[in-house]
Structure formats: C-alpha cells, structure tokens
Specification:
Length: 462
C-alpha cells in the first residue's frame, strides 16, 4: 500500500462520490500529518493502481481527467496520463503502468523520484520548521547560500520561488545597478538584450525577454526596451550593446526550450567583453542547463566565461519550488532593504531539500558520471536514430540532449509515451528534448533509446 493510501485509509473517512473528494481541504475529513514522515518511512513505494483511484472517488484516469476539466483553468495541454507515484527513474500512472522518465519534470528531478537523502531532508525539516518568512533568519537558507557562493563565481544570493521569478529579480537588480553606478545620469541605461529561440519565463518582465511571439503577443504591451539578436551572432551583439542604453544582456549558455542550442566560447566571451566596455551586466540564465545537467556544475564553466548575475531554479530543490539569483558584490552593492522580496522564498523546508541536492551533485565523481552517461546517450542515439531520414541533428552536452527532426516531434513523443517512455519537445516543436534524472543508469538510457528507435515509424504514419 502506498504512503498516500495509508494516510487516506487510516486518517480519512471513506470517500464516495466526486463532490465529496474535493471537500478534503475544507475540513470535512481531517488528515493528521504529525507523523507523516514516520508513516512514509515504514512503507515501500508502490504504484497507485486503479483500485486506489476508486478509493479516491474515481474509477479510472479518464474520470479523473474529466473532473479536472471542470476545475482547473485550461492553461496546460496535458498528455493523457495521470502520474500517481515514482521511484528512481520510473513513474507509475493510476492504472499501474510503468514509464521510464527521461523528462524529469522538465529537467527538475535531478535525483529522480524518492531519493532517500532528499526525502530525509524534506521530512526531517517538515517535522521541525517549514516556513517563517524572510522577516527572520533561518539556518538552511544560510547553508544553501554558502554552498552556492563557495561553488560559483558569486558573492551573494537572492532566493525566489521559480525560474521566472529569478529572472524578474535579475531585471530589477540590473536596472537598480545602473541607477546606482551612474548617479549623475538623468536617465541611466534601462534596455535589455536577449536572443532568438530564448526562453526566460512567463511573468511579464521575463516574458518580455522571451523571443517566441506566441508567448508574448496575447499579453502585450509587455515591458518595453528589449531587443532580440540572433543567438551566436557576435558582430550583431557588439553593435547592439551600447553604453548608456543597455542595462543588461540575458543569455542561456545552452538553450533548453529553444531547441538545445549551445553557445560557443567566442560568442559568450564577446558578450562579456562588450558588456564590460558598455558598463552593462551579463546575465546567464541557467534555470534549465545549470547544476550538473551538462556534466559541469554550471554550464558556463564549459566556456570559461563568467557572468555578473546567474539565475537558477529547476533542479535546485529536487522538485520543490525554488529559484536563486547569484551575483557579484559589484551588483549586490546596489541593492538596499526593500528593493525586492518574497514571502515564501528560501523557506527552511525548501532550502534543506536544496542542500541535499547540491551536496549529492557535488560529490566526487557525480559530475563525471553525468558526462560519461551523456556521451553514451549521444552514441546510442547516433547508432539507433542517426540513419533515420527524419533526423537532422543530434546535439547537446551531458544529459541535456536534443534530436532535431524535419517534421513535428509530437507523434514520436506520443508513441514513446504509449510505449512507456516520457520525453519532451522543444524548439518549434520539431526537437525531441531528452533531460533525464542525472542519476539515470546506462541500462535505462539504452532502454529509452530502444523505445525511441522502435517508435520512429510514427513519424511516417503521421
């Protein structure tokens, strides 16, 4: 019996129809969580089956999906799977079907599902202290900040709740830095430069930095003063980065959502040099490519080029919501009390989980194993898929890999899911994005690529 069902059967009165299920949060059936971690620790992880779904008031995943359609705002074009539980790199739906997870919650679950050290960090802190707000100091926040500073170019850290929030903070910090460093200017630099195929988030400031028009157009006017340059175009960047105009340049060292495009040392160094000459800040968005995904702790270490600000999020807390803005003292010196803030950011619970993730990723040999598995994955893909007429390019570094097709990738992604493999799309919908947990084994990688190979025929059938 799963932990969830133990709690339900042990602490919640029997549930009948759907309408009663949604009264759980209103106090009709109180759940006692004081000993949650003790209960979970004593139970083995098993898939939540259709029988369990019936206990929850649903006969099948189809009934659950139908119920959701009447309750949630329709912002997500979800795949027709109801995930119920997971362990390692395996997920289970409510009917008990297994899936090899090579999407990891969009590059979030770096340690897979149910990692013992991560679970212990969460449950231990949940039993002691979950949230106090940033009105007070807390130990886990300081511990995490020290690890991030000691392991990076940065001197200071600001915590947020997500990647888009981290980029919003970076926008504000860049603007404030220009006012601070140019006190005699009536109007210091306020504009930003971003690049084609980039993705920086969905809140209004981060959205303005995101190149895809379908994300921006329905919500315009967004923040003005953003110019989009061709990713990798050194001459265009040198011309566009101007003193008194450009506040900061935002760039992903490796673009994830955009299609797994990697920068070059020459390109990133040209941005560094141009920003220094113009008094602008260089911001690296490593929300998806950072914290070990490339086989390096930070993606920019591949190139030996360092930013003034770096934004992080996805894998940092292993599945709990967190974002972080790392910066030099030069930038931090411009920030005063009240310039920015967040109620939930940097909570003891989430930071304790992030410390567990950071400590595991930085253990000796871990990053080398990511590099080795990434090379093995690319070799497998070249062997099994490279000769297919629809495959244009296989690219990426470490465990962030893209397979570019000459057709939409959706039929392949759907066929793989039906065959028990979870992967993603990227780019213009024609790139298969493979971002598995960093703890995935070579045997699991081989299984995943074999499934992809067998499903390639779906591209012709579509």
């Amino acid at each position: 019996m799963s932990c969830l069902n133990s709690l339900i059967s042990g602490y919640v009165s029997p549930i009948g129809d759907h309408s009663r299920l949604f009264n759980l949060g209103k106090g009709r059936y109180p759940i006692r969580f004081q000993n949650f971690h003790k209960v979970c620790a004593s139970l083995s992880v098993e898939p939540l089956t259709s029988t369990n779904a019936t206990k929850l008031g649903f006969g099948s995943s189809k009934e659950l999906m139908a119920a959701e359609a009447n309750l949630l705002v329709g912002t997500y074009n979800r795949a027709a799977v109801v995930i119920a539980s997971g362990k390692g790199c395996t997920l289970y739906d409510v009917e008990g079907k297994e899936y090899l997870d090579m999407a990891s919650g969009i590059a979030v679950n770096a340690l897979g599902h149910g990692d013992e050290d991560w679970v212990n960090a969460v449950t231990q802190k949940a039993n002691i202290l979950t949230h106090v707000s940033n009105v007070y100091y807390s130990v886990p926040q300081l511990e995490l900040a020290k690890r991030l500073v000691d392991g990076s170019f940065a001197d200071r850290v600001f915590f947020s709740n997500s990647g888009t929030e981290a980029n919003e903070a970076a926008i504000k910090f860049a603007r404030k830095y220009q006012w601070f460093s140019n006190p005699d200017e009536k109007q210091p630099a306020t504009e930003f430069i971003s690049f084609t195929n980039c993705f920086h988030g969905r809140t209004m400031g981060a959205l303005a930095l995101t190149s895809k028009e379908q994300y921006r157009l329905p919500f315009e006017p967004v923040m003005p003063g953003v110019s989009f340059l061709e990713y990798g175009n050194i001459e265009a960047a040198k011309e566009a980065i101007v003193r008194g105009k450009t506040a900061a340049v935002f760039v992903e060292p490796i673009q994830g959502e955009g299609g797994i495009y990697s920068g070059t040392k020459e390109f990133l160094q040209s941005l560094r040099d141009a920003c220094d000459a113009a008094g602008a800040l260089l911001v690296f968005d490593e929300v998806q490519c950072g914290l070990g995904r490339t086989g390096y702790l930070w993606a920019h270490e591949i190139y030996g080029v360092f930013p003034d600000i770096m934004t992080l999020a996805k894998p940092l807390a292993g599945g709990l919501p967190i974002g972080a803005v790392l910066m030099t003292n030069k930038v931090a010196s411009a920030i005063n009390y009240g310039d920015h803030g967040s109620t939930f950011a940097g909570s003891p619970l989430v930071c304790n989980a992030a410390v567990a993730v950071f400590d595991k990723v930085t253990k000796p040999g871990f990053l080398a194993s990511v590099t080795k598995k990434g090379e093995y994955l690319k070799e497998l893909l070249l062997q099994k898929l490279g000769g297919n007429k629809h495959v244009k390019e296989i690219r990426g570094t470490g465990l962030i890999i893209g397979v570019e097709l000459d057709v939409s990738a959706s039929p392949l992604v759907d066929a793989c899911r039906n065959s028990g493999l979870l992967i993603l799309t990227a780019g213009k919908g024609n790139v298969v994005r493979i971002v598995p947990p960093l703890v995935i084994s070579e045997q699991e990688l081989e299984l995943g690529v074999n499934i992809m190979s067998k499903c390639m025929s779906s591209l012709d059938e579509s």
